[in-house]
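For reproducibility, we list the full input for the 6-O-phosphono-beta-D-galactopyranose complex.
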Amino acid sequence: MYHKRIKQFPEDFLFGAATSAFQVEGAADIDGRGVAVHDLQPKKEGITDFSVASDHYHHYKEDIALMKELGLKAYRLSLSWVRIMPDGKNVNPKGIEFYDRLLQEVVDNDMEPIVTIYHFEYPQALVDAYGGWSSREAIEDFEKFAAVLFENFGDRVNYWLTINEQDHLLKIPSRLGFPEEIDGKEYLKLAEQVNYNMCVATARVIKLCHEVLPHAQIGPVINPMYGIPNSNKPEDVIATMEFNELSTFYITELHCRGRFSPIHWKYMEDRDVVPEIFEEDLELMKANKPDFLGMNYYLNQTVAASQQDAIAYHEKSVFIVEEPGVYTVTDNPNIVQTDWGWNICPEGMKLAIMDFYNRYQLPVLITENGLGAHDELKDEQVEDDYRIEYIHNHLAQIKDCIGLGYPVIGYCAWSFIDLVSGREGMDKRYGFIYVNRDNDDLKDMRRIKKKSFYWYQTIIEERGESL
Ligand code: BGP
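The corresponding predicted structure, in tokenized form, follows.
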């Protein structure tokens, strides 16, 4: 049961909200921005692309004023690699100038910028040059990009995030610039190499950050769909543990301990997809651990033992519903779902926070959490009580974790303002602020505060006392 263990959130708790560059900025062809992998994706029928998005590029001052009015203590944003280095390698001064103005505005308005170095927006030029993340060259280029950010913005940024949702990226070949039609086994091998390269790159950038910005803290962003057992059958409990290991901890074991999870190792061996590994990389990871774990949490899964007995290669899906021989994801009648079938389970967030801390003793920063919905604008208002309920229930779990002694340092709701959803365009909105456009009509891009805006404003003001 949930008990009120503390009255309020700690004074320095980072009440925040998040966006990512390609989903919010628009201005895709302006000021020398290069081509990112998603720019080349075929347009989906009836769904907007990312070229205009919420036009934050031109509205950033107005948007930051709204953040201030909301009372945000922190704003999580990502910096577009292709705006700053259009070919992935050489600096574009106009890109630096834009983020210089943007970050200064955030800081001048007394908010802590939390900066994601790489949030899905990968330079196509690096894929063309050497296959992107499948190559070790990608590690060097990621480090160079991070070095440019540290040099130009390190004086204003205390919290850095390395790669957003590496686990998620690995399940969508097109987000890495790879063809969708790639064969399952071939792709799984590639994905394991990409995963390994990204872990090495993360350790290199953590090391660099600690060297050049000793005041700053840095961590990865993981996306646990924390599994709970379908029943009290011991085989379902074991399958759940294996699910969590293969869907989440296989990455954090490398980040935080510089070793492969045994279950993950066996999984790769059985499928003949072990990547190329160098001992010095594992030493590097062991010596350069994150300062905290960034966690995006939207949903969890209910897991049972798989009744099949085959070896699976790759299902190109974000939610891998069956790993034959290991686990299968099941429906859970105790959990309601969003319109897109995502399980709403705030307790899953609490379980994930506690498990992560118990394993790694690292503070947790919630970098994304929120509800995507078909919001309706009626008489200049959006009555998004469903979003208020969702965020209320998740924040209450965080408050409870803190009350139990688990260090959660902040919460960034996804998203600050409506932006283009990863797969559903403008149909699926997440913001506290409505942007007046839809998939096929840009209208006037007017910003309209939703009911949840006023609710979150009060929560921040009273430091969550009513939760
Ligand atoms: C996370 C991403 C975000 C955002 C969010 C919501 O995986 O980090 O960029 O898109 O999910 O997902 P969607 O837009 O698909 O609903």
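The chain has a mean pLDDT of 95. The longest strand covers residues 112-118. Both points were considered when choosing residues for closer inspection.
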